[in-house]
Amino acid sequence: MMKKYFILFVLSLLPLLGSAQSLQQSDMIEQINKASAGMQSLQCDFVQTKFLNILDDKMVSKGKMYYQQADKLRWEYTSPYAYTFILNQNQVLLKNDSRSDVIDVNQNRIFKEIARMMMNSIVGNCLSDEKSFRTTVEVSGSDWVATLIPLKRDMKQMWNKLILHIRPDMKVVYKVEMHEPSGDYTIIDLIDIRTDEKISPEVFDIN
Fold first, then answer.
1. 2-204, superfamily in CATH?
2. Poorest-confidence range of 22-31, 97-106, 178-187?
């Protein structure tokens, strides 16, 4: 379950340029790729809300995210529980209140795929990844909206579609939707987004 949110959240780390009104989809994606590659760091708070279709209920959790070009990511839940995921080069740390585990992504197929998707997304390659997604980017009001339809079997089992809401004046995604085959869906709102600020190396410490 947790890997869904890690992969999805990194899809939201795509800085953007300009207005989409007069651009074709290929032009938008080219600008996204160029801007993403130039982003050195990103940090923000987030609110994750999961809507449960059967129970007509929702679950809300909060946390913090830190990213540093090109292979460091910290995704940390702080409420209502504590859970931390850190990717630092080829190692992943999973930590909660009772235990912590370090995984070599080169020795684990699942985490190797997660790491690949994370890095491809951060540098802007996910919208051009035709093997993993069928992608459309369009204008909706003052925003850009990117819809990604999974093509790989394991992803299709988790999601029907992923939707990224982009605020061009901020040059980053500010909301992500994840729709599941069961009818459940999750919305992640990014808050207080800051780019290219210095992040302490301790944030990504695996030990």
1. Lipoprotein localisation LolA/LolB/LppX (2.50.20.10)
2. 22-31
Q: Which long-range contacts (CB under 8 A, 24 or more apart) does 178-183 make?
A: 178/4, 178/5, 178/8, 181/156, 181/157, 182/53, 182/54, 183/53, 183/54
pLDDT of residue 17: 40
Q: Are 126 and 136 in contact (CB under 8 A)?
A: no
Let me know: does 124 contact 37? Beta carbons within 8 Å. Answer: yes
CB neighbour list of residue 89: distance below 8 Å, 6 or more residues apart: 71, 72
pTM assigned to the model: 0.79
Would you kindly state where each structural domain of the chain is located, as residue ranges?
Answer: 2-204
**For 10-46, what is each residue's pLDDT tens digit?**
555 554 444 444 457 777 677 666 777 777 888 999 9
DSSP assignment of 102-158, as one string? EEEGGG-HHHHHHHHHHHHHHTT-GGG-TTTEEEEEEEETTEEEEEEEE-SHHHHHH
Type of residue found at 188: I
